[in-house]
Write a structure and sequence with these properties.
The complex is a heterodimer. By secondary structure, chain A is an alpha+beta fold. Among the domains of chain A are: 57 residues, Ribosomal Protein L9, domain 1; 133 residues, Ribosomal Protein L9, domain 2 (Roll). Chain A is built from eight helices and eleven strands. By secondary structure, chain B is α+β, with helices and mostly antiparallel strands. Chain B has a domain of 165 residues. A three-stranded antiparallel sheet of chain B has the order 3-4-5, with no helix packed on it. In chain B, strands 1-2 form a two-stranded antiparallel ribbon. Chain B has a two-stranded antiparallel ribbon with strand order 6-7. The chains are: A alpha+beta, B alpha+beta. Chain B: Keywords: Ribonucleoprotein, Ribosomal protein.
Chain lengths: 272, 273
């Protein structure tokens, strides 16, 4: 028998000259689980025989199905710990087979929902508990996204202004979030401008989701003018700029907010 | 069987196989049982098996499932492919086209399996089908213990199954944690009923390994010694015995009072002393 690697190499060799095998150019080899059938069914054999008499034509196969193209089966699991975006401890969830195996079963975050495991680990009244905690299933994701956001509030460099709720709402809309004005809470002290001392400095607003959950969102003030000479231009990306609070008492809160995912990597690179 | 074929079988001398002579014939029944389980035709993976006894297809004809021949390369025995293998065959596009050789390969990927009995994570090459089967059986150990050797097929899978069975039979799992050991043992002990201890001892070995095992355990006991060595040893023992007897004699003789060379008293000394 040929070795496996040798088999592959031999197969590739036959494909190397395209012109000589024009029939097979379109049928590219791909590595999948195949279900095949004989193009010409094997002949019948007698009772005292073990195999039928086969000729070359009985080894011509036809493609029936590729099992890797099938939709993956879902399997039931019981979670042993809280898993982000999946569920809480003691909850029964159904996830696709491959993903469940790699992300939950191997790290022992969940067990299969066998009758014994259901008795042992399932917590029945978790639905009620969950309802009391969050207003919706997707709230945690929204909170994650909003708390990571660096909201740029672009103000005029020429006309005087004080920051109001609608400025923040428009800034949110520019970033792609629809936030009604009555959910936004501004800081108590007023911020007025134009003032280039507070350029690229930060403050935070509080957004209330579904009248229940509150998120702190960091906002950065940027001054804008259409005059190219007076424009403020930064060469580095926004998450690389230093984060300094307008009101010094807000500094610890702003530092505690999660940073941009790339910010850490850049710190590491600079250190190296 | 008709009379015609009966004649053929009566005068037919069977070809010698590995089981008819030499070590193969001497191997224990336990290993032969495992071999039969291993080399049976596996379940249909790459083709759809026809059910029932007869089918009506233009006319009534019996159902005979002829499995597609599969290739098992060297790498097959270093992973667990879940019944998949390489298929060698031909494709034919249409009636007047020439047939072209074609190989169908399984999709392999590197992954990890966890054995609860051995308490070990093992990094191996698997297919998607293997992982689906593990999930269906509720765990890697259950999958190995429930599936017969013909479907596992690969040597690696059988080796791991052997280890699991040995540790269950000897109860050597979790040496530091007696509570956990009891719990896991109770989960898996039903699988032990299918095997005796000797069958487990001979399970999951290749033919070569089984022969080596047999030589090590049984052949050494019945080692043939040349007679020369035996006679030499006897002679030496005899001579030694004689020698010891002689020494005893001489001691006896010298101990005799009359035979001593030196007299215990001096004949030339005066009485007065």
């Amino acid at each position: 028998m040929l070795k496996y690697t040798q088999l592959c190499l031999n197969y590739l060799k036959s494909h190397s000259t395209l012109l000589s095998h024009q029939n097979n150019v379109l049928v590219q080899q791909s590595r999948n689980t195949y279900i095949l059938k004989r193009k010409y069914p094997a002949p019948l054999y007698k009772k005292h025989q073990r195999f039928p008499r086969m000729t070359h034509k009985h080894f011509i196969y036809e493609y029936v199905e590729n099992t890797n193209r099938r939709k993956q089966k879902k399997i039931d699991l019981v979670l042993l710990e809280d898993v982000k975006n999946v569920g809480e401890k003691g909850e029964k969830v159904s996830i696709t087979s491959q993903r469940a195996y790699e992300t939950l079963i191997l790290p022992k975050l969940a067990v299969y929902a066998t009758p014994e495991n259901l008795k042992k680990y399932l917590i029945e009244d978790e639905m009620k508990k969950k309802l009391s905690l969050n207003s919706s299933k997707f709230v945690t994701r929204t909170i994650d996204i909003l708390s990571q956001c660096y909201l740029p509030i672009t103000m005029s460099i020429e006309n005087p202004w004080t920051i109001e709720k609608w400025h923040v709402r428009v800034a949110f809309r520019n970033e792609g979030y629809i936030v009604p004005e009555d959910t936004i809470t501004l800081p108590k002290k007023t911020i007025t401008g134009p003032d280039l001392n507070i350029e690229n400095k930060e403050f935070y607003v509080i957004v209330k989701i579904n009248n229940q959950e509150e998120v702190k969102v960091r906002c950065k003030i940027h001054h804008y003018t259409s005059d190219p000479e007076n424009k403020v231009i930064y060469e580095v990306p926004f998450y690389q700029l230093p984060s300094i609070a307008i009101f010094p008492e807000d500094q610890p809160i702003l530092d505690s907010l999660p940073k941009h995912p790339l910010a850490d990597k850049i710190d590491d690179d600079l250190k190296k | 069987m008709s009379m015609k074929h009966l004649g053929e079988t009566l005068y037919h001398i069977r070809r010698p196989t590995r089981w008819t002579e030499g070590i193969g014939a001497a191997l224990p029944e336990e290993y032969k049982k495992f071999w039969k389980e291993w080399k049976r035709t596996p379940t249909a993976v790459h083709y759809i098996e026809q059910k029932g006894k007869y089918m009506i297809f233009a006319s009534r004809r019996p159902v005979q499932n002829v499995p597609l021949p599969l290739l098992y390369p060297e790498e097959f025995h270093k992973g667990i492919w879940g019944g998949e293998a390489v298929i060698q065959g031909f494709t034919k596009k249409h009636k007047y086209a020439r047939r072209y050789p074609h190989f169908w390969f399984p999709t392999l990927k590197k992954s990890v399996v966890y054995s609860e009995v051995l308490d070990k994570y093992i990094s191996i090459v698997v297919t998607n089908r293997t992982i689906d089967l593990i999930n269906e059986h509720y765990g890697f150990d259950h999958y190995l213990l429930k599936t017969p050797a013909c479907d596992l097929k690969s040597e690696l899978a059988l080796k791991i199954k052997r280890e699991i069975l040995l540790s269950l039979a000897d109860k050597t799992l979790y040496p530091d944690d007696p509570l956990k050991r009891e719990e896991i043992y109770n989960n898996y002990k039903e699988y032990l009923t299918a095997y005796t201890r000797d069958e487990i001892e001979w399970y999951g070995l290749t033919y070569k390994e089984a022969c080596k095992k047999w030589i090590k355990h049984y052949a050494e006991k019945e080692k043939v010694m040349p007679l020369k060595l035996q006679y030499r040893a006897e002679l030496i023992a005899e001579l030694e015995q004689e020698k010891s007897q002689e020494v005893e004699k001489t001691i006896f003789v010298t101990d005799n009072y009359f035979c001593r060379w030196k007299l215990p008293w001096n004949p030339f000394s005066s009485r007065s002393d």
